[in-house]
Amino acid sequence: MFKIREAFASGVLYENEASLLKSQLERCFSHQLGPRGIKPQAVRSCIVPHNSLESSGPVAAWMYSKLEKSNFIILGAAHKPLQSQFSMMKEGLWKTPLGELLIDANIAKKLSDSCDLIKYDSSSHQTEHSIEMQLPFLQYRFGNDIKFVPILIFNNFADENFLNNCRIVGEAIADVIKSSKDKWTVIASSDLSQNKKFDNTIIKPLLKFNGEKLFSKIKNNETKICGFGCIATAIAAAKKLGAGNAKLLKYATASQIISNSSSTGYASIIFY
Q1: I need a labelling partner for 149 at 20 to 30 A (CA). Which of 76, 174, 175, 212 fits?
Q2: Which CATH superfamily is domain 4-271 in?
Q3: Which pTM was predicted?
Q4: Torsional sign, CA 228, 231, 234, 235
Q5: Among 244, 253, 250, 257, which residue's Cα sits nearest to residue 60?
Q6: Whole-number mean pLDDT of the chain?
Q7: C-alpha–C-alpha distance, residues 112 and 263, integer Å
């Protein structure tokens, strides 16, 4: 059944009027901690934060300054349990103040057919912001004539198969989009921790495509990363898509962007 998802985070995590939202996005790019320009390059997959535009927007803008126009698989961190670990909305459109973006139902079906870990589930997407926060950036850069597929991933560190499942899903995503005549990029949405030193220790294996070491560091630490599953899946997809390099474009904490804010860390990373 065709679903229309209204903007859940509009007016809360970003401006709810088109003109104000465009201005807010422009400030993310021109911010002293932002990229201050757009220099696209070929990107296979990437990692980007999903907090409010005021808080994490300048860091997110770094990643979006590098993207070329394509369609997008967006992996979003689920902040509460899902019906299944990998929950995909199979069809419909998502609204923001900048317009509407259509889900590519054909690619969604191919993903479901090729990987039984990915389950259809539209209800879990209605009040989760991690994927929605990427759409205004995509619309700002590319308009509304692109398509996407949203997949929520819930971390389950108690499941001994969790990391392997992320690898399986990531490789399935890579196989499906490689066979498409259209260009696709994988976006993984995750904030980091509230400990800058810990963030530095996990970024190192991440840049070496080492999901196993990353998993070990996070699993054995009280500090958890909300989108670890998204990151691990994006790394697996990047490898299968032929990426050989990774680059940290920008790291900053919320308190560096907004005074008197939290110490939550944000990173923009590309695999190419």
Answers
A1: 212
A2: LigB-like (3.40.830.10)
A3: 0.97
A4: negative
A5: 250
A6: 96
A7: 38
